[in-house]
Task: inverse folding
């Protein structure tokens, strides 16, 4: 659960990057956070339940991809689960269940079966 708390902390932190030229990169607003990081917006949406709003100039929409939707469902269900329930739902080791949902080199993409198992265990 510490990794989820770390993700919430990271997702609530504003971007510290200031570009000296006209920046037409996509950006999203989630609650009071404006970010250019799509995955940060997804994490904030998953952990805080706030809506993702795309900037008017975005080339991509605020619609979640199927993979992003699995991440959101995983984090929402995992917030109500114990470590034992996470292990039971996935069949992974205790260490590995903490890596699920993170889009990093060490992260693990959640599988549909894991998400369904966890949602059934916690009643989500």
Result:
């Amino acid at each position: 659960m510490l990794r989820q708390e770390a993700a919430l902390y990271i997702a609530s932190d504003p971007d510290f990057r200031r570009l000296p030229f006209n920046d037409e990169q996509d950006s999203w607003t989630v609650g009071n956070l404006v970010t250019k990081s799509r995955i940060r917006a997804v994490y904030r949406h998953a952990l805080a339940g706030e809506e993702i709003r795309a900037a008017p100039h975005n080339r991509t929409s605020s619609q979640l991809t199927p993979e992003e939707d699995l991440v959101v469902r995983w984090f929402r269900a995992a917030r109500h689960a114990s470590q034992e329930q996470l292990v039971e739902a996935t069949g992974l080791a205790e260490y590995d269940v903490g890596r699920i949902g993170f889009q990093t080199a060490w992260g693990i993409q959640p599988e549909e079966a894991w998400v369904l198992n966890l949602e059934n265990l916690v009643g989500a």
User: Anything to note?
Assistant: The CA atoms of residues 54 and 90 lie 33 Å apart. The mean pLDDT is 84.
